[in-house]
Amino acid sequence: MKHPVLIVWFKEIKETLRDRRTLLVMVLLPMVMMPGLMLGLPLLLMGQYESIEEAPVRVAVSGSSHGEAFMEYLKTRPEIRLVEVEDPRTSLEEREIDVLLEIPANFQDSISQGDATYLSMGFDSTRDRSRMGAERLSRFVDIYRQSIRDLRLQDKGISPQMLEPFHVQRQDLAPETRVQGMFMAMILPMVIGIWAGIGGMYTAIDVAAGEKERASLEPLLTTPPARKMMVYGKFLSILTVALVTVTIVVVSMTATFNYGFPRLIGDAMGEMGITLSLGAGMLIILVAFLLSAVLAALELTLSIFARSFKEAQNYITPLTLFIVFPAMIVQMIPELDASYRILAIPVFNCIVLIRDILLGEINMAFLGFTLIVSFIYAFSALQLAQYFFSREDVILKV
Description:
The chain is mainly alpha-helical. The chain has 19 helices and 4 strands. The relative contact order is 0.11.
């Protein structure tokens, strides 16, 4: 004879598989939406930046008569298009030009006399085209400035190389596994956290608040399984759905980084992919299991307490903030090291561990500590769920 927990679990899973909305969230969205976003956004950004790089920089020059030689130099650059406007600042605000260049009155005389002078360059930092245009124009201005410097040195019989006695060769000594996992470590922990919560959310709402609304919970309470067994069975059904969703997300995103980027974006972007070892992949699934267990227990508790499906949604949806906020902290502070104090914080601990696994920094002591802490949090939430499930005023309220 099957265990009562398994009977309840099987019943809830069967009803979940009949719900198209849950199947959409559990399978279709993570399998299609996440790879689409991961490939579509970089392609869109790269296309935008390529179009900006290919287009000439529109430059309006104020005081062009003060630097005739410099103006002739700019005209020889095909990457620069000189534009004549009446009010350069207004034209910059109205996006008619990308960069405003102001030449002072003593510019040409100062260069001829060997003195120092300046150029004023104005741009709009809130526009990519203007900001990138200023960077491109600065490179061409540097070339012109270096040519003047070299001529001055040659006139004095000094080699330009005297000003550059040595060059610095930079070498990245970070381990290959860390370099490969760095980009994915910025994205995957947040994605896993969000889908660990979203994946089981509708199942959690349906198995408690939904049954209250359908008036099917009271007949269920008359069946032989004890209420404690019912809570555990419902919890396992939520955990199962969430874990399946997270597994699909991990597999689809890993495949996207390994195969999608090299094919659609090129080798340069493909080098940022990550090849997960079987051990690292299993550890990520284990940590995702811990995260899903804590969230599933919390979602079930809130769903039991809620009066209706809509009320349960209002209670459970804010849980997403408790996932996104820790993930944003990990993204904004990449130097944040794992410690027992940090790993004692629910959700935050799993996000940090997933990041470290992707970076190849696996600490089994931290993993064991997180396992214990997550079990305590999940068990405590389940105890609260059992308490609510045993109270008639909570179960029967509508």
